[in-house]
Amino acid sequence: MSKHDEARRAFLIGTAVGAGAVAGAGWLPSALAQDDAAKGGAAVPAHPHSAGPGHGAFFNDEDAATIAAFTERLMPGAPGKPGALDAGVLDYIDLALSGAYAELQEFYRRGLASLDVHCRKTYGAPFRRLDAARQDEVITALEQGKATEFSWPIARAFFDTVRTHTMEGMFADPIYGGNKDFAGWRLVGFPGAQPAFSPEDLQSREAFAGDVVLGLRIQAKSRTGR
Predict the structure, then answer these.
(1) Percentage with pLDDT > 70 across the chain
(2) What pLDDT, on a 0 to 100 scale, did the predictor assign at position 95?
(3) Is the dihedral of CA 90, 15, 210, 32 positive or negative?
(4) What torsion do the CA atoms of 180, 188, 27, 47 make, to the nearest 10 degrees?
(5) How many other C-beta atoms are found inside a 10 Å radius of the C-beta of residue 117?
(6) In a 3-state reduction of DSSP, which class is residue 150?
(7) Are 58 and 66 in contact (CB under 8 A)?
(8) Rg (the chain; Cα; Å)
(9) Is the pLDDT of residue 123 over 70?
(10) For 193-222, b where at least 16 C-beta lie within 10 A, e where not — what string?
């Protein structure tokens, strides 16, 4: 993994932890929390599509490949270090856009269309077909607001939104479609809702290294016995 990739991973992990993204096993993105509250404030349910296979709730194959590549460059994986692909970030965003984030569907459609035009004019190929170095150049141009062909959303707004959703897909409870196999929680040493901690665990200043990680789906099953 290059120093650039390491720095990008460290930034996203630090931002997520600093923002309290893994402050509790029940943490969820604000829009999803509001969606649940609107349903009566009941216990957080599984996403209606969370058991479904891969993308397809909103993205077509080409857009899915673009988002998969984009989020992996934001949170690149490495041996022993899960990235966006490992954590199922694409599935998280795809499911969210078919549900709680449905109001952002046109934002993503137009943003992805502008990204495609920019990449084809600049490099002669869509984002998903560029090598990692050129993908990073495109992402940097978006972040700095220098990418051409964007009107609404503007380039920086598109970058910020995808980065935010990448962080959510990495660190939100797996019940929402991302954080596959608790990859994000394990990455930062967040234990989930443990039934019990040993005295040694409570006194340790190190990240929790136990094997048992519980999320909302497992807690729900334990309460209902199903």
Answers:
(1) 65
(2) 94
(3) negative
(4) 0
(5) 15
(6) coil
(7) no
(8) 18
(9) yes
(10) beeeeeeeeeeeeeebeeeebbbbbbbeee
Cα separations in angstroms, 208 against 78, 91, 139, 205, 211: 21, 27, 34, 9, 9
Token output for 71: 């989020």
When pLDDT is averaged across residues 152-176 and rounded to a whole number, the result is: 94
Query: Rounded to whole angstroms, how far apart are CA atoms 130 and 138?
Result: 10
114 and 203 housed in the same domain: no
* 148 and 71 within one domain: yes
* Number of domains observed in the structure of the chain: 2
C-alpha pair distances (Å), 109 with each of 61, 62, 77, 113, 179? 13, 12, 26, 6, 24
Tell me what pLDDT residue 207 has.
Answer: 67
DSSP classification of residue 202: H
Q: Check pLDDT > 50 for residue 23.
A: no
Q: Which of 70, 59, 60 is nearest to 161 (CA)?
A: 70
Residue 217 CA to residue 90 CA, distance in Å, equals 20
Question: Are residues 117 and 171 located together in one domain of the fold?
Answer: yes
- Closest listed residue to residue 25, CA positions, set 174, 173, 169, 201: 173
Is 64 part of any domain? yes
